[in-house]
# Entry
Amino acid sequence: MSSTGTLTRVKLEPGSTPLGICTGPLNSLWVTEQFGEVLDRIDAQHHVLRVADLGGGSQPVGIVTGPDGNLWIAGASAIERVTPAGSVSQFPLESGAGGLRITNGADGALWFVEEQGGRVGHVTLEGHVTLLADTFNQPTGVAADSSGTMWVAEQGNGTIDRIAASGQVTRY
# Structure
């Protein structure tokens, strides 16, 4: 929707399952298709371009533009880094853990939640995945505030969790 309220609908391929969306490189919108396991780019003229086939049971969900200018995607089996040209690198998660949402952290890493696995973790730009020791009950959202503190929406407990730089978790 434009700033003047004009709504534009962009048609994807029939059967598409768009789930995640973010702004990003090349003045474009980037869209994950969960069951098609692809990454699409929507350019400023509303053309849809298939950028990458993620495959392998990835079921991509969350997407964010990382501090390195690449697209970072949380999916069922991996965190994936995709260059604007479509080159894909996969960083595996524990089997069935299911990355759901992903965001930039103040520490330069990408933070993600695994709803099915009940875990919160981060991945460095080099692809090193670390999971916090604490377990969570259906973590479904993650965000960083301006001080660098990470926040997690924990659906299963009905809490918002604060994760300090030390890793200490406080539930509200």
About this structure: The chain has a mean pLDDT of 92. The chain has no helices and 16 strands.
